[in-house]
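dumping this here before i forget
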Amino acid sequence: MKKNKQCGLFLIFCFLFITSGFSQVLVKRQVTLMGSVFEISLVDRNSSIANQHIDEVISEIDRIENLISEWRPQTQIAEVNRNAGIEPVKVDREVFELTQRAIQYAQNSNGAFDISIVALDKVWLFDGSMTTMPAEEFIKNSVAKVGYKHIRLDSAASTIFLELPGMKIGFGSIGKGYAADRGRQIMKEKGIVAGIVNASGDLSAWGNPPNSDAWKIGVNNPFKPHRMVKVLRFNEMSVATSGSYEKYAEINGKRYAHIINPVTGYPATGLTSVTIYGPSAEIANALSTSIMVLGEKEGKKLIQRFPAYHYIFITDQGKVIQQR
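structure:
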């Protein structure tokens, strides 16, 4: 279920602009957070103040990573994973509620989305070396420790318990979207009129850039380099893309995505790219990941339950399917 972050979204407006009458600057900065490149762009009174606010966004994202990263040993999620099959672990309400929402995303998608997939045994290779299918027994066993139904939450105690020894949870699929949403939220609360928090293609935007009425985001076509499927124009909006066009295995003429179905252990097939846009990057994250696993038909059924969200699918044959 892990996502390919080379997702083909391009920010078209990125510049520093000063208007006559009053100054308004668009300042951007790139920084590595959560194992990915974040680009934070803010419209502010001057570059010095903008950079101070960018520092605050970075601090917020780092705070989130220090709560939910399964790789940093001091985090609450790392503690939950260490105690799998042993005992519940008390977590901050923020972590509890993020986990609660993740379980809801899993239920919505019939398990196509599952934060416990980080315990998946690695039986597939996506470096070009795999030319034959793994044994069916290995595939079946690979998901033995995966299953959101084994995540037990106690709301009164604010605890998380993983029932199976060796089970793990992780937020690689929605954590960056959540961080982008939070970055936007804290900047809006401070009165910042516009900006984008872009987590390697999972982004949340608000307002508009100087001298323009909208941000413009280009959605790339992986089958036609340097060609855009669509240019999205928006103000308050979030976008997320899941894709498999750089990491996949081709066996007997069939493409297998590096995004794994948490229920079956088999890679997703049928879709090469799924872009979702709507109010929240976190929800767009969850939907794009789920739909990559579900495929076109079931994916459309899922997103119809979220009328505020729209889609662009690109199939393994290069067909573009857009919501009209």
